[in-house]
Automatic annotation (TrEMBL), chain A:
GO terms for biological process: protein neddylation. SMART domains: E2_bind. It catalyses: ATP + [NEDD8 protein] + [E1 NEDD8-activating enzyme]-L-cysteine = AMP + diphosphate + [E1 NEDD8-activating enzyme]-S-[NEDD8 protein]-yl-L-cysteine. Catalytic subunit of the dimeric E1 enzyme, which activates NEDD8. GO terms for molecular function: ATP binding; NEDD8 activating enzyme activity. It comes from Corchorus olitorius. Signal peptide: none annotated. Belongs to the ubiquitin-activating E1 family. UBA3 subfamily. CDD domains: Uba3_RUB. Keywords: ATP-binding, Ligase, Nucleotide-binding, Ubl conjugation pathway. This is NEDD8-activating enzyme E1 catalytic subunit.
Automatic annotation (TrEMBL), chain B:
One of its GO terms (molecular function) is nucleotide binding. Regulatory subunit of the dimeric E1 enzyme. E1 activates RUB1/NEDD8 by first adenylating its C-terminal glycine residue with ATP, thereafter linking this residue to the side chain of the catalytic cysteine, yielding a RUB1-ECR1 thioester and free AMP. E1 finally transfers RUB1 to the catalytic cysteine of RCE1. This is NEDD8-activating enzyme E1 regulatory subunit. Belongs to the ubiquitin-activating E1 family. ULA1 subfamily. GO terms for biological process: protein neddylation. The lineage of its organism: Eukaryota, Viridiplantae, Streptophyta, Embryophyta, Tracheophyta. InterPro entries: APP-BP1 (IPR030667), ThiF/MoeB/HesA (IPR045886), ThiF_NAD_FAD-bd (IPR000594), Ubiquitin-activating_enz (IPR035985). It comes from Corchorus olitorius. The keyword Cell membrane does not apply.
Length: 449, 538
């Protein structure tokens, strides 16, 4: 430590936390230069999204002791990004965000390596994602969060007592903002609620009923959505509406103005038209900076153990004064994404029909008329009749074969659940383990892929 | 060059052209451009603030490269203010950026008039003594001031302004102003002209709920001696009456009427927040009164006279199930009343201006109109001088925070008993204690390696004497927290600085645009478990 003090170090401030023992720290915290080195050389962090949050995250992580970063984003830079996505300049408009962001941070912070991926998140396979110690999400859509969440949760394994195996959990930090408000959260699959456990935090977007748009428009957005969703198709037939095409947007605006005039409705402007059609969420630099930095700080603490961590959801609201709140949400034990699912042990000879019959008797399931899906593929569907007929031949085949002879994996079953003499339809996650297969002993019957 | 409007589109949707114009007129001074200061300005430069002036006398050291994005290898040993200034300029060439290579403490001590040229000063990483001096200077010169400090895993943000008044406070949720229980004659006439018993089912399900409630309220009054439902039982009964009027189960307008019936049950007249504002002594206006208070004086007269205990009508109505015709007409009705109220207030404003010897046209129509539309949402924020808070903190408040159940997370010893107290309040005390420590020992506890045990015991003694001076006798902070504070050793971590700087810049925007409501009191950041806390020690 004396050495660290005498040589001028770029890590001057960070060293106070990484090299000194602390009192309010993670039990596994081991301060020292080895820890600092591990952050620099061993830990790999993935940043998903190179937009408002992603740009900040890359900067914050690069200045928090991490040297191996990767970033994935499918978007190109637009002029409207420039009020907050500080790694981009006017001359960058049209270039891939991930590439420019990576380049700018590497130019500024020596020794940091950032690998950009200019593609959709779905284009990368699970192996790509499994390479990271922690994933930081800077996304603006629920779908993308769900997707990454599912990928990260798929790495989680459970032991035979349905306890999650900590070493298989890939933690995530997730942020989101809207105007002066935002949230930051920590997800450790199997230990804290995953994105799906608390999906209700993101209520579905309210859409206007079509009859309101067509028959009783009352305000400007109704007129705009009429032009966008109804009139466009009437006039342009098969041609798809492109929100990034300014001719298309202008057309919708003109039509919305006409409709508004017809009904005596005020307030249609070009800016509002863009806002409604593209569902623009207002965004500013300061809120993105706060939320991203909170996520980066949690990343540093989770990886190094140098302090306690957020448990597990922080909301920030700067609209009226400043209100911040930490909420400890709880896991949904039956979560289809991060939960253990129900363990089912089978012989390799069991047919799909036999398996479906077993589900009816299984004390934790009591599921009748089950339809079975495996990795997005229908193994057997009770309905509709067309699908039933197509999948019927599978019933006589061994499940082991239908699952490509994978010794343990996840299945999804939908059917009628008979509980307390009440019938309800339900979807269940099943952790299927085949007995007597190499590599699977009786003590190691963990599920997961 | 792309149209600036496009570049700023996402923020114009929040604070509009007016807010943007205010930002572009503002001149901001930053004291100390470590990561906390640099990050604050980064967010403001991106948003297009008019000008920035960076004051910092230090040179860039290797350690700065590890926590500040606005310097790089080529900056080493150069003026930090100069380097940060040039990197910030890259972000937005519309901003006028300059720097002064001087230590802020020197300016505060030798050239206090320097600060009067600015709209707002962001003072980062200042110790208590300088904060107190700068606060006096800025108050004297009527310059807005924000303190921001990052210190290990803690930090603070505090605003210091004599008075900040807000017309457009833009709250997220605010009860709309429909006057259902107090309809003006035109609204009542409009409602009466619509027959709730219309036979045509399509017409029946397109009567707006405003009309349903105004008419049903009248019906109720007739059978209840002129009063509206007030008891729980009566309210339930009223909702049952509404339900009974539905001719089919899919009548959204009736469902909306049931859901909105609480608006009918609310007490008419203005709320307590507004009452406090019109009763403020500043509402007794004179020649030195600000436009805001002149308008408040006019509002007060209006409420007592034409308004009949109500503020001017806002004039907008929420979307509701309705035929287009009814809705558009209803909207026009509300707008007309709103316009009429505005004209009355405008006249009163002009009369008051004349009376206090000002140009009666010195407040624009647009300003008065905005004031009227937002009359129920006005905000007045006043901040105590820093010196005052530090010398005379409100003890009951401090005690309350020390034991606030929501934030209790660590234990302290008090009168031989273990109590749990908030980490954030502990940090509030310790952030002051480290400054006392630095004044005595010329460095912060744990700033240099070695001698940690001595630093810890010295910080503990300092904290105890501070608590004694504050009158919190017998109260000590936990060893854990004191140890952590020493471990932090005045480190300025980038991630913490980005949070503190982000908060500071958000508050700057609120102060300059005069929109939304700035934070009150001192915000203490807790980077251990993120249970930060806003302390209002008034």
């Amino acid at each position: 430590m004396a050495e660290a003090a005498s040589t001028p170090s770029k890590s001057r401030d960070l060293d106070k936390l990484l090299l000194r023992p602390g009192n309010l720290v993670d039990p596994n915290f081991e301060p020292g230069t080895e820890l600092r080195l591990a952050l620099q050389e061993q830990v790999k962090v993935l940043v998903v999204g190179a937009g408002g949050l992603g740009c900040e995250l890359l900067k914050d992580l690069a200045l928090s002791g991490f040297k191996n970063l990767e970033v994935i984003d499918m978007d190109r830079i637009e002029v409207t990004n420039l009020n907050r996505q500080f790694l981009f300049r006017l001359e960058d408009v049209g270039k891939p965000k991930a590439e420019v962001a990576a380049k700018r941070v590497m130019e500024r912070v020596k020794g940091v390596n950032i690998v950009p991926h200019f593609c959709r998140i779905e284009e990368k396979d699970n192996e790509f994602y499994s390479d990271f110690h922690i994933i930081a999400l800077g996304l603006d859509s629920i779908e993308a969060r769900s997707y990454i969440n599912a990928v990260a949760c798929s790495f989680l394994e459970y032991d035979s007592d349905d306890n999650p195996r900590e070493e298989t959990a890939t933690p995530m930090v997730d942020g989101g903002t809207e105007g002066f408000k935002g949230h930051a959260r920590v997800i450790k699959p199997g230990f804290t609620p995953c994105f799906e456990c608390t999906i209700w935090l993101f209520p579905p977007q309210v859409k206007f009923p079509l009859c309101t748009l067509a028959e009783t428009p009352r305000n400007a957005p109704h007129c705009i959505e009429y032009a966008h969703l109804i009139k466009w198709n009437e006039v342009h037939g098969g041609k798809a509406f492109d929100p990034d095409n300014s001719d298309h947007m202008k057309w919708v605006y003109d039509e919305a103005v006409k409709r508004a005039e017809l009904f005596g409705i005020p307030g249609v402007t070009y800016s509002l038209t863009q806002g409604v059609v593209k569902n623009i969420i207002p965004a500013i630099a300061s809120t993105n900076a706060i939320i991203s930095a909170a996520c980066a700080l949690e990343t540093l603490k989770i990886v190094s153990g140098c302090s306690k961590t957020l448990s597990n959801y922080l909301t920030y609201n700067g609209v009226e004064g400043l209100h911040t709140k930490v909420t400890e949400f709880v896991r949904d034990k039956d979560c289809l994404v991060c939960g253990p699912g129900v363990l089912v042990e089978l012989d390799t000879t069991v047919t799909l029909q036999k398996f479906i019959d077993m589900l009816e008797e299984h004390p934790k399931l009591l599921m009748s008329k089950a339809s079975i899906r495996y990795r997005g593929k229908n193994l057997y569907m009770q309905a509709p009749p067309v699908l039933e007929e197509m999948t019927r031949s599978n019933l006589s085949l061994p499940l082991y074969d239908l699952m490509d002879k994978v010794p343990k994996d996840i299945l999804h079953a939908t059917g009628t659940i008979n509980k307390d003499n009440k019938k309800s339809s339900g979807l269940r996650k099943l952790r299927v383990v085949f007995k007597g297969i190499d590599g699977v002993t009786d003590m190691d019957m963990a599920g997961g892929a | 060059m792309a149209e600036p409007k496009t570049k700023y589109d996402r923020q114009l949707r929040i604070w509009g052209e007016q807010g943007q114009a205010a930002l572009e007129k503002a001149s901001i001074c930053l004291l100390n451009c470590g990561p906390t200061g640099s990050e604050t300005l980064k967010n403001l430069v991106l948003g297009g603030v008019g000008s920035i002036t960076i004051v910092d006398g230090s040179k860039v050291e290797p350690g700065d490269l590890g926590n500040n994005f606005m310097v790089d290898e080529s900056s080493l040993e150069q003026s930090k203010a100069k380097c940060v200034c040039s990197f910030l300029q890259e972000l937005n060439d519309a901003v006028k950026a300059k720097f002064i290579e001087e230590y802020p403490e020197a300016l505060i001590n030798t050239n206090p008039s320097f600060f009067s040229q600015f709209t707002l000063v962001v003072a980062t990483q200042l110790v208590e003594e300088s904060m107190v001096k700068l606060d006096r200077i800025c108050r004297e010169a009527n310059v807005m001031l924000i303190f921001a400090r990052s210190y290990g895993l803690t930090g603070l943000v505090r605003i210091s302004v004599k008075e900040h008044t807000v017309i457009e406070s833009k709250p997220d949720h605010f009860l709309d102003d429909l006057r259902l229980n107090n309809p003006w004659p035109e609204l009542r006439e409009f409602a009466e002209a619509i027959d709730l018993n219309v036979q045509d089912p399509v017409a029946h399900k397109h009567i707006p709920y405003v009309v349903i409630l105004v008419n049903m309220a009248d019906e109720w009054r007739k059978s209840h001696g002129g009063t509206l439902p007030s008891t729980r039982e009566e309210k339930r009964e009223f909702k049952e009456l509404l339900k009974a009027r539905m001719v089919s189960m899919d009548e959204d307008n009736y469902k909306e009427a049931i859901d909105a019936s609480f608006k009918l049950f609310a007490t008419p007249g203005i709320g307590s927040d507004l009452l406090q504002i019109i009763n403020d002594s500043c509402a007794e206006v004179g020649s030195s009164s600000s436009d805001f208070w002149v308008m408040v004086a006019a509002l007060k007269e209006f409420i007592a006279n034409e308004g009949g205990r109500e503020a001017p009508l806002e004039g907008s109505i929420p979307d509701m199930t309705s035929s287009t015709e009814h809705y558009v007409n209803l909207q026009k009705l509300y707008q007309a009343k709103s316009e009429a109220d505005f004209l009355v207030i405008e006249q009163r404003v002009r009369n008051i201006l004349k009376k206090i010897g000002k140009d009666p046209d010195s407040i624009t129509k647009a300003t008065i109109k905005s004031f009227c539309k937002n009359a129920r949402k006005l905000k007045v924020c006043r901040y105590r001088p820093v010196e005052d808070e530090y010398n005379n903190p409100s003890l009951p408040e401090l005690q309350k925070y020390l034991t606030d159940e929501d934030y209790r997370s660590i234990s302290i010893d008090c009168c031989q008993e273990k109590h749990l107290v908030s980490i954030a309040v502990g940090f509030y005390i310790l952030l002051r204690a480290v400054d006392r420590y630095a004044a005595n020992f010329n460095s912060f506890p744990g700033q240099f390696d070695g001698g940690m045990d001595e630093d810890i015991s010295r910080l503990k003694t300092t904290a105890v004497s501070l608590l004694n001076d504050l009158g919190c006798n017998g109260l000590t902070l936990t060893e854990d927290l004191i140890n952590e504070m020493c471990r932090f050793g005045a480190a300025e971590l980038h991630a913490v600085a980005a949070i503190i700087g982000g908060i500071a810049s958000q508050e700057v925007i609120k102060l300059i645009t005069k929109q939304f409501v700035p934070l009150s009191g001192t915000y203490i950041f807790n980077g251990i478990d993120q249970k930060s806390q806003l302390l209002t020690l008034y």
